[in-house]
């Protein structure tokens, strides 16, 4: 029996997401940030540079919206199999089991990456629209797209460990409750431990540390988030593919 190429289960997973609420989630989270930015500019008393507004948008994304979006996305992707109890059927197919879980991981990473791009695009649109309504409050200076793209890329890489933990938990347990509780608790402790030095080691706080002024915080969070995240994704795939019952 020949192994099915990996792109086949990946394409199937992508079609499942296309029929789910993943698209709505991917648009809604960045859109909420853009709406927030839009009204902040309308309420402003003086014009501010693009850097300030885009850093605010990036901070909201990394601090709260990204962890909660990853939590919701992981629960959604897992429920597509847990809900109809289709794991037994999927695992009986002539496909290496690890392909099934790796496909989910790749799709989750792609969705979060697209959401990161959307944060920049939607925030620019929201700020530009607010500037058209109140020209005197329009963002000043240069819109440094390359800088904002690099920042969102590092936030995405620093968030790999967060994504791996949330997806692993959601796929491991048939109930969506453990994953949601973990995501809410992780976000809560990330908020209350913002100024703590030890917070840099908390996966839910690693993306927002890309905005830190201290280079050691940035480098530590990026190294741990990306490096351990890749390791965790591999371990997740191996662990789940060897389990007989989910």
Topology:
Elements: H1 7-18, H2 22-43, H3 50-82, H4 87-91, H5 97-133, H6 145-158, H7 160-172, H8 177-192, H9 215-242
Quickly list its features:
single chain; 246 residues; mainly alpha; 9 helices
Rg from alpha-carbon coordinates: 19 Å
Helix content: over 70%
Which residue ranges are poorly predicted, with pLDDT under 50 across at least 5 consecutive positions? none
Multimer state: single chain
What's the rounded overall pLDDT mean? 89
Number of helical segments with 4 or more residues: 9
What is the terminal-to-terminal distance? 25 Å
Q: Could you say which structural class the secondary elements and strand pairing correspond to? A: mainly alpha
The biggest sheet, with number of strands, parallel, antiparallel or mixed sense and barrel status, is: none
Which percent range describes the beta-strand content? under 5%
Number of strands: 0
Inertia-based shape = globular
Topology as a string of helices (H) and strands (E): HHHHHHHHH
Question: What would you say this structure looks like, in words?
Answer:
- The model has no long low-confidence stretch (mean pLDDT 89).
- It contains nine helices and no strands.
- Helix 3 packs parallel to helix 7 and helix 7 (160-172) packs parallel to helix 9.
- Helix content is 73%, strand content 0%.
- The chain has helices at 7-18, 22-43, 50-82, 87-91, 97-133, 145-158, 160-172, 177-192, 215-242.
- It has 246 residues and is an all-alpha fold.
